[in-house]
């Protein structure tokens, strides 16, 4: 079966590799977004999917929006169906009608929960304990099409959005391959989504700021959800201060929200309930370091507190 693959970020690389290696499938071309400026020097850099497609010797199409020329290029691939994983743009009706069997999207949530660009991040921030991936038929809405199949997993104690996305990218790869074949063969009839939908818009930098007045579990959920991107942060002495994983410490009390204390070689910060323990931090202009090393360097200050 001839398949066009559309995707952009690193998360979309494992499904591409899996489809390319599947003897039942021939990836005839890859569609990804155009090279984007990266870093302080704004160097134009190909997407992760684009780089991997070239390494695999696959024909590559780059586009940030659908044009008549792109539609012609898509038709010329000879694909009968398309696979989509985080391509990064809504496809209009003319594009959705190009392939005989449509476009099958692998989305990292249990739809209709968490429709949008940041499903895993939003799930962790909300404290969800069950996560998963869904394949569905693309339509003109935002992740609203009928469902083909799902795979479920549990959130682990050490999980961040980065680790969950990596895991679901691999767990969802065989799901995507089977869904393409099932839809094209007619073995599976996609079913309308059921349940109350919830939005998962892209995270802003402001949402990654820790609110120390929140209860400890909510603080932990926020940090886990925004790690590694856009990255959890707070303010210390008027400058941005980055945080890695924090661990709720329900047995540690008596610390005011945002205040930092060292107790028995552990670094705790007060919240709206009990404390959380810091693991690693990155002060402004410095490299990441163990929280205890940073906190010991602040012990001569009268008060150590985050804003």
Largest sheet: 7 strands, mixed
Number of helical stretches of at least 4 residues: 8
What does the average pLDDT come to? 96
Class per helix and strand makeup: alpha+beta
Strand portion: 25-35%
Distance between the termini: 56 Å
Helix and strand pattern: EHEEEHEHEHEHEEHHEEEEEEEEH
Computed over alpha carbons, the radius of gyration is: 22 Å
Binding site for (6S)-5,6,7,8-tetrahydrofolate: 109-112
Keywords: Protein biosynthesis, Transferase
EC number: 2.1.2.9
InterPro entries: Fmt (IPR005794), Formyl_trans_C (IPR005793), Formyl_transf_N (IPR002376), Formyl_transf_N_sf (IPR036477), Formyl_transferase-like_C_sf (IPR011034), Met-tRNA-FMT_C (IPR044135), Met-tRNA-FMT_N (IPR041711)
Any key phrases for this structure?
307 residues; alpha+beta; four-stranded antiparallel beta sheet; 8 helices; 17 strands; Met-tRNA-FMT_C; Formyl_transf_N_sf; Met-tRNA-FMT_N
Structure, described:
The model has no long low-confidence stretch (mean pLDDT 96). The longest helix has 25 residues, at 161-185. Helix 1 packs parallel to helix 6 and helix 5 packs antiparallel against helix 7. 25% of the residues lie in helices and 26% in strands. It contains 8 helices and 17 strands. By secondary structure, the chain is an alpha+beta fold. It has a 7-stranded mixed sheet with strand order 5-2-1-6-7-8-9, with helices on both faces. It has a 4-stranded antiparallel sheet with strand order 10-11-16-17.
């Amino acid at each position: 079966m001839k398949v066009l693959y559309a995707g952009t970020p690193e998360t979309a690389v494992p499904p591409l590799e899996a489809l390319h290696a599947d003897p039942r499938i021939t990836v005839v071309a890859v569609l990804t977004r155009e090279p984007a400026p990266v870093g302080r020097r704004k160097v134009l850099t190909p997407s992760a999917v684009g780089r991997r497609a070239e390494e695999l010797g696959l024909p590559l199409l780059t586009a940030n929006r659908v044009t008549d020329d792109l539609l012609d290029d898509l038709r010329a691939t000879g694909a009968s169906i398309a696979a989509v994983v985080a391509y990064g743009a809504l496809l209009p009706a003319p594009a959705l009608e190009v392939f005989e069997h449509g476009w099958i999207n692998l989305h990292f949530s249990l739809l209709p929960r968490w429709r949008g660009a940041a499903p895993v991040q939003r799930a962790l921030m909300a404290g969800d304990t069950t996560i998963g991936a869904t394949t569905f038929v693309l339509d003109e809405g935002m992740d609203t099409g009928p469902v083909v199949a799902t795979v479920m997993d549990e959130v682990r104690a050490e999980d961040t959005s980065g680790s969950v996305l990596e895991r679901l990218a691999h767990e969802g790869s065989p799901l995507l391959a089977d869904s393409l074949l099932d839809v094209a063969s007619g073995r599976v009839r996609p079913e309308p989504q059921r349940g109350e939908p919830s939005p998962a818009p892209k995270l802003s930098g402001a949402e990654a700021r820790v609110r120390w007045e929140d209860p400890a579990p909510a603080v932990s959920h926020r940090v886990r959800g925004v790690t590694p991107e856009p990255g959890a942060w707070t303010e210390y002495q008027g400058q941005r201060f980055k945080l890695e994983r924090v661990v709720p410490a329900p047995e540690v009390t008596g610390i005011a929200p945002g205040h930092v204390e060292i107790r028995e070689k552990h670094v705790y910060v007060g919240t709206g309930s009990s404390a959380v323990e810091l693991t690693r931090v990155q002060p402004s202009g410095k490299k990441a370091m163990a929280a205890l090393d940073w906190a010991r360097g602040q012990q001569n200050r009268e008060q150590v507190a985050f804003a």
